[in-house]
Amino acid sequence: MDNFNKLISSIKADKFSSFYLLSGTEPYFIDKFESFVTDKLITDANREFDYSVFYGKEVEVSQIIESAKRYPMIGTYNLIIVREAQNIKSSHDVLANYVLNPQKNTILIFSHKYKSFDKRSKLYKAAKKNGVVYESRELYDSEIKKWLGFEIKKNKLDIDQSSIEILYNSIGNDLSKIMKEIEKLKIILSEGTLITPEIIEKYIGFSKKFNNFELYKALGDRNFSKCFQISNYLFYDSKSAPITMTLGGMHTFFKRLMIYKAIENKSNAPQIMGINSFFVKDYYSASKNYTMKQISKILQYILETDLKAKGVTNKAFNQKKLLQDLLIKILNIH
Length: 334
Description:
Elements: H1 2-12, E1 19-24, H2 27-41, E2 51-55, H3 61-68, E3 78-83, H4 93-100, E4 106-113, H5 122-130, E5 132-135, H6 141-154, E6 158-159, H7 161-171, H8 175-188, E7 194-195, H9 197-204, H10 212-221, H11 224-234, H12 243-262, H13 269-273, H14 280-287, H15 292-309, H16 319-331
Parallel strand pairs: 1-4, 1-5, 2-3, 3-4, 6-7
């Protein structure tokens, strides 16, 4: 995120590069950068003359270079965006030659999504030498929660750590989806409003009693009844969130529980585990109910269930049954 913020700061300061090579597994920041530069440079007056968008499946590298060599007609810069560049079939080598000797009044953004760009390639080396290279990786859970809180405060709303956890567990790790929900709350709520579980339940369609966050706490307490209440609610219809999201969070919970049990000085737990101190009490309670050997088995159970959910060992399945079979295994572990 720090590299992305530096990138945005340079655009705000009107410090542009002739070529941006954007790649990586997290598409949100690639789209965000593209949108930010477009809003900065393109107006209704110059949109038809100084702005071109190409798509990887439909364009040849020669077309991109031909367009890039044009001078702007109205604005200061000619902005060219290549979306879904990972789908370009022809060689990038000719484009690498252009990057080393670009048209100075052209800004070319090359968006290569869902995987890292080949660092051995001629284009990557040219971009490193005479452009800007940015890799947008997927954020860790803790980073997403930190980013979520930052974005909420940037939109002049407020939220506490508990509600961040609930919001994250209700939406998942799709950054674009999270931003849409934040923008929705900004429209609905007045400036400075504290986002509470009640607000999340009302406007995002999420139960403050029956959610993944509460499921993990119930598992920690080995509360059989509550676990099954929550699982019935989570997967009551076909529109339910994918079970893989629930399993991912469950795996994280038990992995952190294992770390907590291994920590000698529990005052260091928040830092070592990468969590807010508010949630340490949940791990303290759970640590009394599971041994290290049991946690190790549970992590294996979760991975096996995840493989079934992804169709590796079981092509047809019912999400609720799959989850409840796992809960029975965990809660009856000896």
